[in-house]
Structure prediction request, 767 residues.
Amino acid sequence: MYGKKVKLRILFISLLLISVILSIFLILKSLEENVVYFFSPTEVKSLTEIKNKKIRIGGMVKDNSIVIESENITFVITDFKNEINVSYEGSVPNLFEEGKGVVAEGFLKDNNFLIAEKILAKHDENYMPPEVKEALEGK
Amino acid sequence: MFFSQLGFYSLIIGLIFSIILFPVAYRDLSIVNNAISSNIFSILSLKLFFVFLSFICLIISFINSDFSNETVYNNSHTTKPLFYKISGTWGNHEGSLLLCLLILVFFIFIFLITSRKEPKKYRIITLLFQEIIIIGFFLFLLITSNPFNHLFPIPQEGLGLNPILQDPILAIHPPILYLGYIGSSIILSSSIAAIIQNNVNNYWAKNLKNWVIISWIFLTIGIVLGSIWAYYELGWGGFWFWDPVENISLMPWLCLTALVHSILVLEKKSLFETWTLVLCISSFTLSMCGTFLVRSGILNSVHTFAHDPSRGIFILIFLFLLILISLIIFFFFHKEKKIKQKNFLFSKETSILLNNWFMMYFLSVVLIGTVYPIFLEVITNEKISVGPPFYNKLLIPFLIPFLFLMSIGPNMKWIRQNVKLLNVKLILLFLLSIFLSYLILIKTELNTLFGSVLIIFSIYLFFVTIRDFFIKNQINFSQKISHFGFSLLILSIIMNGIFSREIITNIKVGEKYEFNNGTIYFEDINTSKKKNYISIVGIFRIKENNNNEIYLEPELRIFNQPIVVTSEADIKTNFITDKFLVMNLVKGNDYYNIKYQTKPFMIWIWLSAILMCVGASINFFKRKQNEE
Prediction:
């Protein structure tokens, strides 16, 4: 019915379409698996179930809460309404300080306790992660 | 004071010249001769002079610490060393835009000088389209981010430059990156002109390729410099973090890399016209999108100098208009020519096209990973971030066919390659790669299928690119070098990824810390006062089990204005491995937080990227020679 050339072209275009659709599907699928959600301490308190999924918590480091041992650092993240305890092994950014904004990434043990894997760096004194700012202003 | 005024007025004069250019160029279009009228050249030179003058004025204001200028006040300080006073000129939003404008004006001047052999109408339309972009930048500068704003009363002291930007590499990183970004604007303008003139052909491709290669070289060097800086200054200890600001420079890079290859096919075989045009338009669009995302404050990073919504909106509207105009011209003027040539499945052009598509796939992964969180936040107010696992998972499997195509593609012939399934030497090489990867794999805990296969193919590509140097074939020398550079890059990245080790601990002065392969001794600490910071140097002795002993001396700098602590990692580099030690201070504690890393083949990552640029430069200069 159609010439060989037209058939080839149809085959070619449909192959292209299929691969585009497949790759988009693939991308979206792994997005779902690999995103990290952000919470404020208050939001963490109101979580009903603790999933085994990586999250980020942002807020201020509570005054007099940093305790350093040789392997481990513990501190408290607060948004001045609720507090979350954090335990962390790893390197800290330069501006990690009491009374300063911080974002910790890791797994929740329960509604009060985060085992952190990463503490996010800030770039300068005035800079505060927008998430923290919003969390503090109470959305 | 005086220089600020001078700079401001010369900017306005520059804008006026830009506007005058339109009627002059329009009149010149209707004159039938082959040379562009000298009026246009004089206007362009004058404009270049005034924009340059304005830029010099800003530099002088920075050197003089003239705090009546708001930009200087916000970003400089009297105690800052002279070098960083100068580099501070483009270390801020306003100044860097002025630098962009200067490069834009400079590039179009160069374009007109070097394109004398091309049709006059094509040159003038390129000029006009480029002028639209330039006027956009002029307006953006003057309306939303004037670098010469006046302050009264005049402050005594400036606010200072962010100390992590006070670094020699970061002083040259922005100008070089801009050369790459802005080079792509010439690519856009001339492809628009070529569409309108309907001369998208191999001659056009041959000339435009110079610009593509130049932009590609500068963009590559710019990215490498940024990466090296992040390695030693941010203390993360790696070369790539899939940080949104890194991603937005990677996207135009992928696009330009695809363009370098597809324009080659257009030049040699007059194929892929439409595809090449699409890439031309997208590479500039992606560069501009990067500027928009970074400057609007949507993405948070060192590059975000100020959060001013009006700037974001301005860039967004400007960007939208540019894309709209380009697309309208593309759809209404572009006529695809009938292709007379036959296409065969096994040919050089097919393999280039396939690899182009792979690059587009990589590009879309990076694009979605970067943009998706922004959209999600706007739509649902949920905040998410996308980390390295996402990219690794999506990129690694598709790198395998990509590397394979790259190892067989260049040796294919144009139009049609006779398929010889059995080439004993290549198969032997492949078996050797499998054997070597096996040796590597048993030394690691790596157990993913894709990872293992990726190692095989990267080693294979490495061998094939080396073999190409020794056999006579149709690949030219510059391409051999660039491809060899790329294979070396991939290989070093993989080796670096699987053999990197790190130790993180908290330690006090005088203490020691034992780990698997040795012991770290924290011997001493030295504090000294420098011009604008206090330096704390930790002295560490690291004794490995094989009795190797090294001293590493990482430094903390506490800057006075603004008060910021930065850490300078100490890195001992040799050709096999980097030893990297960085320390951090937690205020009010005796403990120092240290991170000790061994990073194999780190230096090869930078060197191989530079090697790719060397290959491209050889290509560029050879073409220039052939033209003369």
Notes: The radius of gyration of chain A is 23 Å. Residues 4-34 of chain A form the longest helix (31 residues).
